[in-house]
Amino acid sequence: MRISAAFRRWQEVERMRGERNIVANKMKGRLDPSVRQALVEEGKNLKEALAALEEDLVVLTDKLQLEAQCIPNITHPDVPTGGEENSVVRHMVGNPPEFKFTAKDHIQLGKELDLFDFDSAAEVSGAKFYYLKNEAVLLEMALINWAISEVSRRGFTPLITPEIVRSSVVEKCGFQPRGDNTQVYSIEDSNQCLIGTAEIPVGGIHMDSIIPDSSLPLKYVAYSHCFRTEAGAAGSATRGLYRVHQFSKVEMFVFCRPNESNLYHEELVKIEEDLFASLGLHFKTLDMATSDLGAPAYRKFDVEAWMPGLERYGEISSASNCTDYQSRRLGIRYRPAPSDPSMAAPKKGKGGASSPTQFVHTLNATACAVPRMIICLLENFQQEDGSVIIPEKLRPFMGGLSTITPKLKG
């Protein structure tokens, strides 16, 4: 109904613009004063009526845009149908650690090793906030630098992004910044939001632009803080660092040609698997079922790592192919190179004989969500004496520190 209403209003606007042009053309040349005056009055009336119609059209178009943004992306034909329980395991890497003692969860380990302070953070900021202390600070910095270093050498450009963006950009990326169950923090009396992932500002970096074919693919690895309301999140499974309002994350993002997005999706999940395997973690990669896909995702692979203290697998990353869902909203195109090399290159700013523009495909994947990784490292590499072994890959980024040991009590 709203589509037909907007179309009818657009037709009215176009008809009235045509009438206004006719009146303007009639006023050219020499006219009897009385005829000119009548045309002036008619033109004035048309202008006022047109302004009202155009205002209505803007309102209808905005409402239609909001409704259209609620429509999710189509899904890959191989995506499992149904709820999360229907997701399919693609890979299983490593084995769960076997302890000869009762494994502790990260909350107990953090307390004994003096790594976190949840109580003070709750007093200062509220529930689901935290202070990192001592070696946990070094561990966060090490994870960030390790992830950026590893991904950068695979051809990704490092970025540090803005952490406040316009609400319109959040919407165009496929997230809902308003509503009762939103995961987005909005800034009061502004059109801005805090980001829930670097995917949003990286997705917007080429907004409303045409990318040269020769520049594709564009690959970024971005560091940012992330802010999420975690509306509706509760229960023992969300305690400690597992589900928090603010955290650091390293995110990969790719802009590519449409026929290459499946290929880069596989590349992104392979990078994730290589990163986590290099730390010695036990994890599984899942092809997520339809009901677990967010609105932008055409297909999504999640990585879930074993967390001994929680006695379950927990999601530590995901990799999504969003096809042209985001690029259509963000206005990101590319101009394919001419298939015939004899075609003359067009002049700057001119279409010439070049191919018409097409929307790029966008993909995103988590290289390192710091709190979840800290959980994995503490729980999987804990020792009977209460210490935690640092994986070798991270030691150069921690000044050579190999073990986190309990503090001596004075």
Which secondary structure elements does this structure contain, and how are they paired or packed?
Elements: H1 2-26, H2 33-68, E1 88-93, H3 106-112, E2 116-117, H4 118-124, E3 131-132, H5 135-152, E4 157-160, E5 164-166, H6 167-172, E6 192-194, H7 199-203, E7 209-212, E8 218-227, E9 246-256, H8 261-278, E10 283-287, E11 299-307, E12 312-321, H9 325-330, E13 332-335, E14 358-359, E15 361-369, H10 370-380, E16 388-389, E17 403-404
Parallel strand pairs: 4-8, 7-13
Antiparallel strand pairs: 1-10, 2-3, 5-6, 8-9, 9-15, 10-11, 11-12, 12-15, 13-14, 16-17
Helix pairs in contact: 1-2, 5-10
Describe this structure in words.
This is serine--tRNA ligase. This protein has helices spanning about 1-25, 35-70, 105-110, 120-125, 135-150, 165-170, 200-205, 260-280, 325-330, 370-380, and strands at about 90-95, 115, 130, 155-160, 165, 190-195, 210, 220-225, 245-255, 285, 300-305, 310-320, 330-335, 360, 360-370, 390, 405. With about 400 residues, the protein is an alpha+beta fold. Strand 11 (about 300-305) and strand 12 form a beta hairpin. The longest helix has about 35 residues, at about 35-70. The mean pLDDT is about 90.
Number of strands: 17
Question: Structural class from helices and strands?
Answer: alpha+beta
Task: Give helix % range.
Answer: 25-40%
Number of helices: 10
- Runs with pLDDT <50, length 5+? none
Main sheet summary: 8 strands, mixed
Return Rg in Å. 27 Å
Shape: elongated
Order of helices and strands: HHEHEHEHEEHEHEEEHEEEHEEEHEE
Largest beta sheet: strand ordering: 1-10-11-12-15-9-8-4
Mean pLDDT: 90
Q: What is the first-to-last residue Cα distance? A: 73 Å
User: β content, as a range?
Assistant: 15-25%
